[in-house]
Write a structure and sequence with these properties.
mainly alpha
Amino acid sequence: MNDFIAWLESSLARFGQWLSPYLSDIALVFVVCIIGLYAGDVIKSVKKLVAGKHFLLRTLAFVLVSAFGLGVLTLWVSPFMAKALMFFGSTYLPLTVFAAFILVGVLADRKSQL
């Protein structure tokens, strides 16, 4: 049993080291998935806020929220997400990434987006 645990930890450590250089990309994908799940709610809220306003104001609000707001949020949150994924160290990085994406899947299922 100890041999299996040692092999498993060794394999996880190697896979974690292999994933480490791609951590910023993995975090970016994770953040984009989360934002994709909730962007519709944000846009609906902004739509209610600017309903009945002039076309140019509505368009400007949409561009500011969609392009700049969500884009900047993605860029700001991704480094924090990368640090959060490394919370347990590179040995457990594969399990952490797997659990994070399972969490995204559960959230998507609850929002009926799957």
